[in-house]
Automatic annotation (TrEMBL):
InterPro entries: ArnT-like_N, MIR_dom_sf, MIR_motif, PMT-like, PMT_4TMC
Key words of the record: Endoplasmic reticulum, Glycosyltransferase, Membrane, Repeat, Transferase, Transmembrane, Transmembrane helix
Coiled-coil stretches noted in the UniProt entry, renumbered to this chain: none
Catalytic activity: a di-trans,poly-cis-dolichyl beta-D-mannosyl phosphate + L-seryl-[protein] = 3-O-(alpha-D-mannosyl)-L-seryl-[protein] + a di-trans,poly-cis-dolichyl phosphate + H(+); a di-trans,poly-cis-dolichyl beta-D-mannosyl phosphate + L-threonyl-[protein] = 3-O-(alpha-D-mannosyl)-L-threonyl-[protein] + a di-trans,poly-cis-dolichyl phosphate + H(+)
Job description of the protein: Transfers mannose from Dol-P-mannose to Ser or Thr residues on proteins.
Pathway: Protein modification; protein glycosylation
TM helices/strands, residue ranges: 76-93, 99-116, 123-141, 161-189, 210-231, 547-565, 585-603, 615-634, 670-690
Domain MIR: 263-323, 345-403
Name of the protein: Dolichyl-phosphate-mannose--protein mannosyltransferase
Top enzyme category: transferase
GO molecular function: dolichyl-phosphate-mannose-protein mannosyltransferase activity; identical protein binding
Main location as per UniProt: endoplasmic reticulum
Compartments in which it is found: Endoplasmic reticulum membrane
Length: 719
């Protein structure tokens, strides 16, 4: 919490998470790829500090004092979470059997890590994620140690605490799924052991164990996780910047939504514009023709171009024409409802068959069995004049299919998300990629054969008709602001938002100047610039303590090496450690290794942009592993099982391996402590050396900055 008030400026992703906290206080709906718990907590802290959400953290380097924001209070909560991480890691190490000296050493590595300091002292989510992650592991270890007292109060308590902690972890970021995977694997191993007949459990007793774990580790965390979203929706009743991400049905639940204010039923003969939900382009046509032969060698129909256009234009306007049963007898007969009879109108409905007539060129939208310009597996879409449309009538018919609702529902502008599927060829209107110069750089529109594709969704943006004046239906002259918000079941809202979170998180692929790859993270190849100012040569640069990070990943590699060598020599009936030590080595350090691995490896499978801070959960477990491995090398091997076996069942002393030599010497304990003190000294020096970059209090000159730039990839400012 040292200098937590400094800088009094918006730093890095405070621009996002401070903004989200403000939206809670304003009640305005927003969208984010992360679950809501972390932002809810930040919003709660801000509310307790008397903040009303008047400022939206618009730009990095904006002044907090000028905007009257309680930034110190808002930073204190993440800082408190960060300060609690080392104690819980210490307690976890103690619980798995690590000596207090090594456990303190493990905690010290976290206390003096520059990256953890930087990430914990700002209005960010990561310190909360890390705290709840380590408490999940701590609670699981405590529960596992109660296995001799099944169904006791403490047994239930620690299993419930594990489930609660897992829900809290997942409620901050989806990275919590990796923590759930770690505990889930441990649970499966635990149940597998309980199933062993030698454990003496009847199947009825085993079922009770299984049910208890399902209750506390599945039902409880899922219920708690859902509750975070329930509160999230309850606190955001008003229309806000997140509306556009959601379905029309969801948007209609928000007070003041444009969908409620501007949505109108679409009458036939209306002049409309159709907008792509995903790409935002408008369905467009113009007099220009497709070239006879494309760059890929395929031949076109030389028909009129149909494209997607991003800007308002007269060529974006289409007239809706109803199906003519005399030309398509298979069409269902039209039966007007009471409202249509009264008004003398026919409204467009879900599953209606229509023609789309391009107003500017007086031609009809058509698709046919000709390859599209850029996608030879999809069909070309063009327009044809009346005489051709009459002879190829079915190819000009399009079925209107909404993404929800039932056949016969009225289509509403803005609200109804729909597909337009050709009646003859069963392809949907699909915006694709940018066309070459002959297409004026506009977007290709083709016939997509996969009518379940996500990119084929459209909606009516503008509707012009004699009965619609200035966007208001004359038959429904309500003042927009008094239209009531619709309702939507909670679980529908939850699953819609959860799906969008996954989709948009995976879509974060745009390159970033400070992004990095997972393979570089353990070695601190590059950091992230959070904030900088030329005044005083100050900057905040996210960078792990190099000595701690390198030592930790080295210990991970050493653990793997020891494990492999031990298994190899066991094949020759040479037992270096004995069964007790090996069991502890596998169960305790192996569990930490699993936690490190499962919080790191999944990032290699992601296509989204990634940053150094994504490694922090893995880093924490690597430091814990390092502390436990040091304890193993200097103490546990000899203390826990002094007799090692060589061949058969002979109880004879084996050759003492190098890594247990120190304990075998009369000065073992002294050397153990000396090594830890020496390492701690090196870690402290590196922490102090790089602390100006962590706290942002500046350096005296450019040379001092350059001296800290150990690698070219450390893109420090002013250097």
């Amino acid at each position: 919490m040292y200098r937590i008030q400094d800088p009094a400026k918006v730093v890095f992703d405070e621009v996002h998470f401070g903004k989200f906290a403000s939206y809670y206080l304003r009640g305005e709906y927003y969208f984010d790829v992360h679950p809501p718990l972390g932002k809810l907590l930040l919003g709660g802290v801000a509310a307790l500090a008397g903040y009303d959400g008047h400022y939206l953290f618009d730009e990095i380097n904006d002044d907090y004092v000028t905007h009257n924001v309680p930034w110190v209070s808002m930073r204190l909560f993440p800082a408190l979470c960060g300060a609690l991480i080392p104690p819980f890691c210490f307690l976890t190490l103690k619980e798995i059997g690590v000596s207090w000296v090594a456990a303190i050493f493990g905690a010290f590595m976290l206390i003096f890590d520059n990256a953890l300091i930087t990430q914990s002292r700002l209005i960010l989510l990561d310190s909360m994620l890390l705290l709840f992650g380590v408490t999940s592991i701590y609670a699981w270890v405590r529960f596992y140690k109660e296995r001799a007292n099944p169904f006791s109060v403490s047994w239930w308590l620690w299993m419930s605490m594990t489930g609660i902690s897992l829900a809290l972890t997942l409620g901050i970021k989806m990275v919590g799924l990796f923590t759930i995977a770690v505990v889930g694997i441990a649970v499966l191993f635990d149940l597998w052991k309980l199933l062993d007949i030698d454990r003496g459990l009847s199947m009825e007793q085993f079922y009770k164990h299984f049910a208890a774990r399902a209750l506390c580790l599945i039902v409880l965390p899922v219920s708690l996780y859902l509750s975070f979203f329930y509160v999230h929706f309850a606190l955001l009743p008003y229309s806000g910047p997140g509306d556009a991400f959601m379905s029309p049905k969801f948007q209609a639940t928000l007070v003041g939504s444009e969908l409620i204010a501007k949505s109108v039923a679409v009458p036939y003969s209306s002049l409309v514009t159709l907008k792509s939900k995903n790409q935002g382009v408008l369905l467009h046509s113009h007099e220009a023709r497709y070239p006879l032969r494309y760059e890929n060698g395929h031949v076109s129909s030389e028909g009129q171009q149909v494209t997607g256009y991003l800007h308002p234009d007269g060529n974006n306007v289409w007239e809706i024409i109803p199906v003519d049963p005399s030309q398509y007898p298979a069409a269902l007969p039209y039966a007007p409802d009471a409202t249509e009879k009264e008004r003398g109108l026919r409204y467009l409905r879900n599953h209606d068959l229509i023609q789309l007539k391009h107003a500017a060129t007086n031609s009809y939208l058509l698709t046919h069995d000709v390859a599209s310009p850029l996608t030879n597996t999809n069909m070309e879409i063009t327009t044809v004049k009346q005489d051709v449309a009459d002879t190829r009538y079915v190819e000009t018919l399009w079925k209107v299919v909404t993404t929800d609702g039932v056949p016969g529902d009225r289509i509403k502008s803005m609200r109804s998300h729909l597909k337009l599927v050709n009646v003859k060829h069963n392809v949907a209107i699909n915006p694709n990629e940018k066309l070459p110069e002959w297409g004026f750089g506009q977007i290709e529109i083709n016939g997509e054969k996969n009518v379940e594709a996500k990119n084929i969704i459209w909606y009516f943006e503008d509707v012009n008709h004699d009965t619609i004046v200035n966007g208001t239906d004359i038959y429904e002259p309500q003042v927009p602001n008094v239209k009531k918000a619709a309702s939507m079941p909670f679980l529908q809202k939850f699953f819609e938002l959860q799906n969008l979170m996954f989709v948009h998180n995976a879509a974060l692929t745009t390159s970033h100047p400070y992004s990095s790859t997972p393979g570089t993270w353990p070695f601190v190849v590059r950091g992230v610039s959070f904030w900088e100012t030329k005044e005083g040569l100050r900057q905040i640069y996210l960078l792990g303590n190099p000595f701690i990070w390198w030592f930790s990943i080295g210990c991970v590699a050493m653990f793997m090496g020891i494990w492999i060598v031990d298994r190899i020599v066991l094949r020759r009936q040479i037992d270096l450690f004995g069964p007790n030590v090996r069991r502890w080595f596998d169960n305790a350090i192996g569990f930490l290794f699993l936690a490190w691995l499962l919080h790191w490896i999944p990032f290699f499978l992601m296509g989204r942009m990634l940053f150094l801070h994504h490694y922090l959960p893995s880093f924490i477990f690597s430091t814990m592993l390092a502390a436990a491995l040091m304890d193993f090398m200097f103490r546990i091997v000899n203390e826990k099982d002094p007799i090692r076996l060589v061949g058969g069942n002979k109880a004879v002393a084996a050759t003492v391996p190098y890594f247990v030599y120190f304990k075998s010497s009369p000065y073992g304990n002294l050397l153990f402590v000396t090594v830890l003190v020496g390492l701690t000294g090196a870690f402290l020096w590196a922490f102090g050396y790089f602390s100006p970059l962590s706290y942002g209090y500046g350096l005296p000159d450019v040379e001092a900055i350059r001296a800290r730039k150990w690698f070219k990839s450390w893109d420090l400012q002013h250097a």
